[in-house]
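User: Hey, my collaborator sent me this sequence without any context and asked if I could get a structure. I don't really work with proteins. Can you help?
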Amino acid sequence: MSKSKQLGKEYIDSMLDPNGSFTQYGLTKREYFAGLAMQGLLSNPNGGMTEGSGRTFSPDGISDLALKHADALLEKLSSEEVS
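Assistant: No problem. I've predicted the 3D structure and written it out in structure-token form, which is a compact way to encode the shape of the chain:
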């Protein structure tokens, strides 16, 4: 499993339950970042696609691209190069 997919399994929300332990729920970081990327891609008139790029406007094509962007962000955030 790639580092970004492993990091992306962390949840963005957690809740302190009555027993004093944290319960995680909702979206994972990867799902959240992919949703934001997809929103941006779909708000662009050409969906972020350029002619001859080999990418498609299909839901699968947009979904794959959104996940690639989410994984890239997770990798970048986990690197020590981020200032």
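In plain terms: The mean pLDDT is 78. You can pass these tokens on to your collaborator as they are.
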